[in-house]
Amino acid sequence: MIQAPDLPIWAAIVVGLLLLAGSTITLIGTFGLLRLKTFYERVHAPTLGTTLGAGLILAASILCFTVLYSRPVIHEILIGIVVTLTTPVTLMLLARAAIYRDRTEGTSPVPPDALTKDRDQ
Amino acid sequence: MSLLILALVITTSQIILGLAMIFAAYRMLRGPRAQDRVLGLDALYIGAMLLLVTYGIQTGRTLYFEAALAIGLLGFAGTVALGKFLMRGEVIE
Amino acid sequence: MKRLLPFPLLALALLVMWILLTGFSPGHVLLGGVVAVLISRTMLSLRPDAAGYRPGLAVIRLAGMVCADILRSNIAVARIVLFRRTDRKSGFLHLPTGLRNPHALAVLAVIITATPGTLWVQHDARRHVILIHVLDLVDEEEWIRLIKDRYERLLMEIFE
What we know:
The complex is a heterotrimer.
Chain A: H1 9-35, H2 39-42, H3 47-69, H4 76-105, H5 114-120
Chain B: H1 2-30, H2 34-59, H3 63-88
Chain C: H1 8-22, H2 26-42, H3 57-82, E1 91-96, H4 102-114, E2 118-124, E3 129-134, H5 140-159
Antiparallel strand pairs in C: 1-3, 2-3
């Protein structure tokens, strides 16, 4: 599909560079999902896409629509706020679920829960 | 001419994001454990959200923005529910 | 005023969000204002503790530092993913913390998790120890010093 917004050349260059950089960072992040060995290492990988990757692509969108409509269009900031606030919550919850499961099974080396250790003594 | 290059660049970044979604989907389908699958799903919906934003840039319409916001919010709710399920075996306590 | 608008910052944020979503027009500002006041009042039934933070230079410094750190650790993690190093090891880290304020701890949790390469796993409220997973754990002491010096001091300034 060959289609593009009608931007002046300087804006087109900046938007293009921001888009390429953002999508490449996101790709590296998900590549980490494939490449890293353990779950606790992999859980770091998607943060690349949700911080810098999302930030760059949203910046491209803000610039594109601001130039296109010749007025500030910044509602993409809402996506940025939602992503920054929700990703830590999901990742923390997932890490806690994983460490809880690993502790219950006792197969992989994870630090023991300090509270249950006290109870055992 | 510059429009053609911009169109190609946008399409390229869409392909890159699609590849990122394929990687995330691979992790979601292969596991090996349940938490890996949930992590893959999380990365998958982030990729979908960013892809929609690039469609918005390509068409010059702000319609896609709302869809991206909805994906972000619903994906968050879904991952939190799955994470809680992994931890407790139930979603609502 | 206090009874009509118990959470002025929340109401303002809701109004700004409404305007960003619907576009700026007098009707939407009025409608968004009504929605913001009504919805921010539902927080009353949750009875949140007062956060008691001090707005000031420290907030701006913290925000700038977090943005710079996110940028730097993005590059660091991207290099770890792309170029496999043999001497890299990841692992858990016990961080003794001096923070007691739950809001300050919540902010620290979001900062640590949002930064690629570090992940907040658990907080032991009785011993005041935080369990953190670090992707590139070269020197444990250095990470502890880094988090304490960079974030904890500023957060104490803001919240305590």
